[in-house]
Amino acid sequence: MVTIKDISKQCDVSPATVSKALNGYGDVGKETTERILRAAREMHYMPNAAARQLKTNISHNIGVVFEDETMSGLTHEYFSQILNSAKNTVEALGYDITFISQSIGGRSFTEHCRYRKCDGVLIASVDFTSPAVRELIDSEFPTVTIDYSFNDHSCVMSDNVNGAYRLVHYLYDKGHRKIAFIHGEQTSVTQKRLSGFYKACGELGIDVPEEYVVEGRFHDTKVSAEATRRLMELKNPPTAIMYPDDFSYIGGSNQCERMGISIPGDLSVTGYDGIHLSQVIRPKLTTWYQDAVRIGEVSGRKLVECIEHKKSCIAEELLVDGKLLEGQTVRDISADLQNPV
Amino acid sequence: MVTIKDISKQCDVSPATVSKALNGYGDVGKETTERILRAAREMHYMPNAAARQLKTNISHNIGVVFEDETMSGLTHEYFSQILNSAKNTVEALGYDITFISQSIGGRSFTEHCRYRKCDGVLIASVDFTSPAVRELIDSEFPTVTIDYSFNDHSCVMSDNVNGAYRLVHYLYDKGHRKIAFIHGEQTSVTQKRLSGFYKACGELGIDVPEEYVVEGRFHDTKVSAEATRRLMELKNPPTAIMYPDDFSYIGGSNQCERMGISIPGDLSVTGYDGIHLSQVIRPKLTTWYQDAVRIGEVSGRKLVECIEHKKSCIAEELLVDGKLLEGQTVRDISADLQNPV
DNA sequence: GTAAATAGCGAAAACGTTTTCAACGATAAA
DNA sequence: TTTATCGTTGAAAACGTTTTCGCTATTTAC
Question: Where exactly does CATH 3.40.50.2300 map onto chain B?
Fold first, then answer.
């Protein structure tokens, strides 16, 4: 491996000068700088990250916390996309990404980060209420969380209030007045969607029977199928169901088929996420697209900003817009409104 | 941050002794060792990875090469699972994972690995024919590839020959004699599946018209839909189609619906991969399950073995078994065999 | 002309480890 | 008693950087 010392010999200058030239200090002569840079290039010099880190205490390394146990992090397309996008973003800024986990040896997230001297940590798809995450949040590391907000820490979220809000509006425009909402577990994401849901319903004068709002589970087809069954067996079933995510819709769809309910003939539905799958199945799913790529970008950028300007960087909640993907799972029943069954 | 020096002061021994005690050299007295370990624990000592790496030239860090451009790596459930599983495996062995990419600055995979001083590299889901990958393979780094085999390098694959072979046999048992195969791009995986396909057909005396074997694209619903259309418009259409992967099946399924072809009533189909999705859609997909978790495990283990016993570790091709997941997309038409249409 | 500022460079310390080697005292062997 | 052996410890060098500070030579200001 060629080191700074090798270059210094080659160019007949001191190691100090080489280092400075390489790092663009104004401190060294123009001609010398050029000679050094050329030599470095020709000799295929690669800085030794460990040495640099040891000296500067900067690793140019960002930790990423993903859920371990259920594997639901990496396997979830939404989060995979966020991770991938964040990775590309921070890489362009000179940072690498290392997975952080609490290992068997009882090493916590925080300790793992300390061991690897992460410059900052991106936290996504994890149980945010766990003490391990709390410890990390309270630690010395700059953090950015995704889809969950801590006080005094930056956070990137897709605009869940607006997403649910707009879906309701869309359904309303299509003539729906009996709208059910199968939502995810009690998380802050769920709460925002609920608030968007109720806000829209309130504005539009839609009456929401208690039994129309049911708790499901993200990404769980069994639960969504069961919830769908219950809803459709009501004396007064809804004309539209909003699912917590695109994947859950699959369960609902299966259930409808079992019950002889046609989508969108008898029942209109919407998903959430806008993953690839939702756009290739038939009927194409009407859903709310969360801009995962953008979320990854924004969170990566924000984290790097926090790292490099720790002082001036303020904690903030960044909202990323989504958009409605109009598919074929919502029927326009506004004509029926005049003469209801 | 508490260092070895701090501990040495606390325990009234030299830093050298502390280091040795911590690393379990036999070299240091029993009582002293205990004192040191206790102090380390109490003071929350964390070794400085950079310093250690600088000295030992071992980073305990494994690079992972995933496709960048199309994002098809991380977003592909099969590969996500492999990655996740490999991650868990190597973490248990004391290694962390860092993503390796060729960055904008024109840094190649190999240079990136050198910069981070990766102890070894896992290569998956990438264009294996690219010069950048070739360079990495030829470099000083121990590598393990997934689903692609280089000479003199270890490689982990699911048993693609057997997978295709067994699918054909299964279809045959259900009475199918006209079996079409939409396969993926020309990769070594595809070639193995083709060879398994032809082997089974040969053994069973199944005649394979040339037009029954068509090149599609992995994970591409449009292409699979189009290929399905062509096949079903033949004068003599197949009674069964094998798709290159579960996702591609979605495209085929849509096409069949458009053409009024019922699955499995009029056409039997199989997928490949056995991702979550395939088991929750209706009809449930009959498919070949690739044990991604096992593949990740095996490749992680093998890589660490190569790293830690560079000398004695032989390059080998490791096959991981899969299994048939019987769904509802293959109809038993053996009764029809007696009196064909 | 002198004094002061500046540009360009190098010596050396430091970052936190690991590891070699020597030294020491104590014990075993001769 | 002397010598060899062993177990335990420490001094010090090394890994490849970065950065401070001081030095010289040159330029600028007066």
Answer: 61-157+293-321, 160-290+325-333
CATH topology of domain A160-290+325-332: Rossmann fold (3.40.50)
Q: How many CB pairs under 8 A join A and B?
A: 117
Q: Which of A37, A44, A46, A293 to mutate to test the interface with B (most CBs of B within 10 A)?
A: A46
User: What phi, psi does B288 have (nearest 5°)?
Assistant: -100, 120
Helix (H, G, I), strand (E, B) or coil at A144: strand
- Helix, strand, or coil (residue A45): coil
Residue A7, min C-alpha distance to chain B (Å): 17
The total of other beta-carbon atoms located within 10 Å of residue B103's CB is 18
pLDDT at A71: 47
Higher pLDDT pick, A13 / A72: A13
State the fold for domain B4-47: 434 Repressor (Amino-terminal Domain) (1.10.260)
pLDDT tens digit sequence for B16-60: 999 999 998 878 888 899 999 999 999 999 999 999 999 999 999
User: Does residue B45 contact residue B68 with C-beta atoms inside 8 Å?
Assistant: no
- A52 CB less than 7 Å from any atom of strand C: no
Tokens, residue B188: 């070594």
Give yes or no for residue B118 having a pLDDT over 70.
yes
Please, what is the end-to-end C-alpha distance for chain B in angstroms?
81
**Measured from the CB, is A60 under 7 Å from any atom of strand D?**
no
Measured CA A311 to C1' D27 distance, in angstroms: 39
Distance CA B86, CA B84 (A): 5
Nearest chain A alpha carbon to B220: A280
The answer to whether the beta carbons of residues A166 and A159 sit under 8 Å apart is: no
Nucleotide of closest approach to A28 (CA, C1'): C8
Asked whether the CA dihedral B49, A310, A73, A134 is positive or negative, the reply is: positive
